[in-house]
Structures are given as C-alpha cells and as structure tokens.
Design brief:
Number of strands: 6
Strand order of the largest sheet: 1-2-3
Bound molecules: acetyl coenzyme *A
Order of helices and strands: EEEHEEEHHHHHHHHHHHHHHHHH
Radius of gyration: 23 Å
Largest sheet: 3 strands, antiparallel
Length: 434
C-alpha cells in the first residue's frame, strides 16, 4: 500500500510581504493538500472555510472517493465488487481491521457478533420510558450512549482487546436496539435475537417476526439488506464520521462517539435524506402535482424546496451507490411483485432533472438516498426507520475511523477556530438601568 508522502513541492503564502513555505502532502491516489499547520504561529492568521469544503481534517487509509469519476473504494476494493460479492459482516471487518478476513477470522468475528446481540435486561426497561411516537433515531442515539454505562471499561482504555470487544458489542447490539425501537413503536412484543441466524437475517427476524406465527426469511431480501448496508458502510469524512472523530479526539467513550455520529446522521441533509425523499414523493403524489411542475418549484429559489436525494458534496458526476441501488430497486420490486407509482414518479423526476439546465449546470445527480427509500418501503420498513437503516450500515465506518484515529496515537483534540463577529468590549449594565 502506498503511504502518504511529503512531496518536494511546497506552496508559498505571501502575507504583507512575508513568505510562508507550506509543504505539499500527497495521498496514495495522488490527491494533494497544502499543510498549513504553521500558518497561525507564523502569521497570526487562520483559514476560513465555511462547511469545510476545502479542508482536510485528517489522513486516512480507509475509504477513497473520486467524486468526479464516481469512484468509491473501501480499503482499495471497489464498491461494485463488494456490493456484488461480499457480505455486510465481511465488509465491516474489512473497514475496521484493514483487510478482508480469512475463513477463521470471519468465523471468529461472526461468532462474536452472534454472542453479543442481547441487551442487558435492565436496558429493556429504558424503552418503556419513551413515548410510542419517539423517533427511532433518538432512541438509537440515546441507547447507544446508555450502553457506555453498562460497559464503563470503554472509557479511553489502553486495552486493545477491550476495544475489539466494544466494537463487537456496538455492531451487534445496535441492530437489536434498532429492531426493539421499531417493535416498541408499534406496540408488539420484542423478538429477541436468534443465534442460529446470520447478521441480516437476525435483524429482519427481530423486526418482522411475531410470537404467534412463523416468519419466513427470504434469502433474496437478506441479500438486498446486505447490499444496502454495504453501500452505506463508509464514506470518509462526512458530517457524522467527522463528528465521531471529533468526539474520539476528546477521549470520550467509543459509545459516546458513535452516539454522537448517530445524532449527526439524523439530519435531512445527511442520513435523514432517505426519509425526506419518500416524504417528498408522497407529498407530490398527494398534491396532484406532476414531476415537471414540482421541478419548477425546486428551481425557484424563493420556495426553498430541494429535490431530495439529489446532489452531493463530493460526487459531482454520479454517485456509484445510486447506480447500484437503481438496479436493485427494479429487482426487489419485481421479485415482490410491487408496482409502486412512487417508483414511476422517482424515475420521472430523475429523467427530467438529468436533462434540466438547472441540475446539469450544478452537477446535481441522484445520490444513494434517492432509491434506498423506495427499497425500504418495498421491504415494509417504516419511513421513520429509514435513517436507522442508514445508521446500521454506517456503524462499521464510524468504528473504523474511531479506531484509526485512536491507533494513530494522535492526542490532538479537534478544536477549530473562528472569526469573531460580535460586539466589541462593552461595560456591564445593571438590570435596573437596561
Ligand atoms: N435540489 C435543488 N437544488 C440543489 C440541490 C437539490 N437537491 N442540491 C444543491 N442544490 C443547489 C443549491 O441551491 C446551490 O445552488 P446555487 O449555486 O444557485 O446557490 C447549488 O446547487 C450548490 O448547492 P450546495 O448546497 O452549495 O451544495 P453542497 O455540496 O453544500 O450540498 C447537499 C450537498 C447537502 C447534499 C445538497 O445537494 C442537498 O441539500 N441535497 C438534498 C439533500 C440530500 O439528498 N442529502 C443526502 C446527501 S447524501 C448522504 O448524506 C448520504
């Protein structure tokens, strides 16, 4: 593997006649960055980069994206290959431990996931405390942080075995929490994990089985769930992953960091977009709008309406995950014999947007969320669980980044600066005189 290198080249910043030479760092795929670590010390200035559009926050060997060419690779392996040939558990191992597992490693990892799927029984009572209308992302985030209270050894531990155990616990138990939060929301009895089932089958069983009758797990559906989770498993320094790294940098527990990642993912501009896509499609259908008039509203900036599931900070050509999911979506709907008018609407929107000057000139293409919502709907997963599905997929990525940063030994807390724009010094005025 090519490691990052410091090139011979440097960038020169000239401020008021004073020069600063900044080294240029090159990554293993040729991406280059100007290292400005000495900037403030030497010049007293900082950089200002709203939304971190031009800012690299770390060096990472986990995931490579080329947004212009539509490339996504985990540890060097193309997403298309992994989605076609791998399983979610194998991809989780790959992301976290940096290599594809051999048979023995995969078996040990899978057995760990099977053995750690139960929640402490006291935690079951916590579910009862939430209203039945509680959003499952709120429950998932809160319960994940609560796990830290049951595993206090996780607090900034130097013990690698303890970390591996916490990783297994998080991967396994969050799946149980997700399914339990759904059962709680519909008032059905909790279905406990079943050790005879694989990772994704176990999840489907906990979600959809009921004690009164057998539930048959369809292997084709298990395959699609594996694929969905694989496609969401990592995406380098996105909002939630940066959040996980930020929390890790403070030395907080791994459970606290993952809980923070879940909260960051929840927003509609990030993981919440899959729910927003379906709500948008339902809204268009209910209003009787056709997709053309909806797009006219989107293009009118005064409406503040966005075409959800379109656009991406990094992909400016196409999102390779959306390409894979568009095909899977067709397969799932035809396998389940579903003729969904929402899919026709989605197709119409996509076709029209892709030839519209507004979207073409801004490089706006369907992202992974555009089709995932329709697949989840076909699988009977309720709309407010969509983002939870995204979170379950993203757990290995968060864990891999948490571990990479921890193992690097870097003890630098993430602490951006700011340009202050508030009031200048004022004298305190007592309340009687205000
Ligand atoms: N619909 C309409 N216009 C859009 C959209 C959209 N979905 N996305 C971007 N634009 C427009 C913006 O209005 C802006 O136009 P302007 O140049 O005339 O002001 C231009 O395209 C650039 O948009 P930014 O918001 O600056 O792009 P950014 O890279 O910051 O945002 C984002 C990316 C948040 C994904 C954005 O495209 C968006 O809001 N998309 C819809 C939500 C969505 O699908 N999110 C999922 C992202 S993928 C993920 O998290 C898995």
């Amino acid at each position: 593997m090519n490691a990052k290198t410091q090139t011979q080249a440097s960038a020169q910043i000239n401020i008021d006649g004073k020069d600063l030479q900044c080294p240029i760092i090159e990554g293993s795929e040729g991406e280059q960055a100007i290292d400005i670590a000495a900037l403030r010390k030497e010049t007293g200035m900082i950089t200002l980069d709203n939304g971190f559009v031009n800012t690299g926050s770390c060096q990472s060997a986990i995931t490579f994206i080329d947004g212009e060419k539509g490339i996504l690779r985990y540890r060097g392996y193309g997403i298309e290959d992994l989605a076609e040939r791998s399983t979610f558990v194998e991809v989780a191992y790959l992301l976290i431990y940096g290599k594809l597992p051999n048979k023995a490693e995969l078996e040990e990892f899978s057995t760990g996931l099977t053995n750690h799927s139960l929640l402490h029984e006291d935690m079951i009572h916590l579910f009862a405390g939430y209203p039945s209308s509680a959003h499952p992302m709120a429950i998932l985030s809160a319960m994940t942080c609560s796990l830290s209270t049951y595993y206090p050894k996780s607090y900034d531990t130097p013990d690698d075995e303890q970390v591996d155990l916490d990783i297994i616990r998080i991967l396994s138990k969050l799946r149980t929490i997700a399914a339990f939060s759904y059962k709680k929301s519909i008032g059905q009895p909790l279905i406990y994990p079943d050790n005879s089932l694989t990772y994704c089958s176990n999840f489907l069983n906990m979600m959809f089985a009921v004690p009164t009758e057998p539930y048959e797990i369809d292997p084709d559906i298990v395959r699609v769930v594996n694929q969905l989770l694989i496609l969401h498993a990592d995406h380098e320094q996105n909002c939630s992953t940066s959040t996980v790294r930020t929390v890790q940098s403070s030395g907080a527990s791994i459970y606290a960091a993952i809980s923070a990642g879940i909260s960051a993912l929840w927003g509609p501009l990030h993981g919440g977009a899959n729910q927003a896509v379906l709500e948008m499609l339902n809204g268009i259908q209910a209003s009787g709008d056709d997709y053309k008039s909806f797009l006219t509203k989107v293009k009118d900036k005064k409406t503040n309406i966005r075409l959800m599931g379109f656009g991406h900070r990094v992909y400016k050509n196409f999102d390779p995950r959306a390409k894979i999911l568009a095909q899977s979506c067709e397969k799932v709907l035809s396998k389940l014999g579903i003729n969904d008018p929402l899919l026709d609407l989605a197709r119409g929107l996509e076709e029209e947007a892709l030839k519209d000057e507004y979207f073409v000139s801004r490089n706006l293409y369907p992202n992974v969320d555009f089709y995932s919502g329709i697949i989840y709907k076909a699988l009977n997963i309720p709309v407010d669980m969509f983002t939870v599905m995204f979170a379950l997929g993203r757990i290995p990525g968060w864990l891999a980044h948490w571990k990479e940063q921890r193992d690097s030994g870097a003890k630098k807390i993430f602490r951006p600066r700011q340009i202050y724009t508030g009031a200048n010094e004022q004298e305190y005025v007592s309340i009687e005189q205000r």
